[in-house]
Amino acid sequence: MRKFFTMTAAILLLAACGAEKAAHEDKQSGDEAAKQETREHKQGAENKEEDKPKEESTKQEEAVASPEYKLNQNTFALEPIGEANPKVVLLTIDDAPDEHALEMAKTLKKLDAPAIFFVNGHLIDSPEKETVIKEIHDLGFMIGNHTYSHSDLTTLPEEKQGEEILSVNDKVEKIIGEKPKFFRAPFGKNTDYSRKIAEDENMLLMNWTYGYDWEKEYMTGDAIAHIMVDTPLLQDGANLLMHDREWTNDGLERIVDGLRDKGYELLDPALIDTKTE
Fold it and tell me: What pTM does this model have?
């Protein structure tokens, strides 16, 4: 009988040890499964994060590839495409960088107000002025082509017209790494040849709807700020012409504030369809 109880106890002890070992193995297996699930979850999250910038990049590319405004080549006003906000105006500054362009760019940057700076080639012939135009571009502003010497293109032979336009494109590309997307002829006077060059260079030919800062009566900050905002020519899609001038620089912040007070959004030129075909 004692032998029977001894054998029974031994069997029970072995069974208990086996159960404990199995439980331990089950726990280890469960722990490993949990760890594996955690690793897979973490990896999935990392993959999701890696995919996120790609998705955002794709969306940004789609945004760039989908312009929201087109330029009316008869009135030079900006017209909405689809459901874009019609109550917009475009700011443009010619004859940059003369003396005030960089300060004007900094003012506009502070106000979160986009614009196009149209440059004259003879104003970026020095290393100092090259630095200025690069800084304006680095602030986020588009650089447009306004010819080399600001000559009336209608008075020049075709060869000279080509030099006036193409030399600026080459110079701007060297400075900022890209060619201008917009072309504005001096005095708004184009020729068939200048139009062809602009088209060949994939530049959108752009004049303006109104401007005043070359008229003597508006050569103060107060006067130019008042007329640019209160003119009857201000309407949806207006294309505003200003220049690198002391008085325009002085009135610039008031112009921006006044336009916004009237409910106008300042149009980002990156949203303009620049296709020339």
Answer: 0.78
Q: Residue 251: its pLDDT value, please?
A: 99
How would you classify the pairing of strands 88-96 and 238-243? parallel
79 pLDDT band, cuts 50/70/90, is very high
CA dihedral sign of residues 272, 275, 276, 277: negative
Distance separating alpha carbons of residues 108 and 137, to the nearest angstrom: 12
Q: What is the span of the domain harbouring residue 20?
A: 1-66
**Measured distance CA(274)–CA(223) in Å, rounded:** 33
Handedness of CA 238, 109, 52, 55 (dihedral sign): positive
Closest CA to 168 of 188, 146, 189, 150: 146
Contacts of 40 (CB under 8 A, 6+ apart): none
Residues 217, 187: Cα–Cα separation, whole Å: 19
Of residues 94, 214, 192, 193, the one with CA closest to residue 145: 94
Q: How many domains does the chain have?
A: 2
By residue count, the chain amounts to: 277
**Residue 13: other Cβ atoms inside 10 A:** 10
Do the domain assignments include residue 277?
A: no
- The answer to whether the beta carbons of residues 194 and 161 sit under 8 Å apart is yes
Is residue 162 in a domain?
Answer: yes
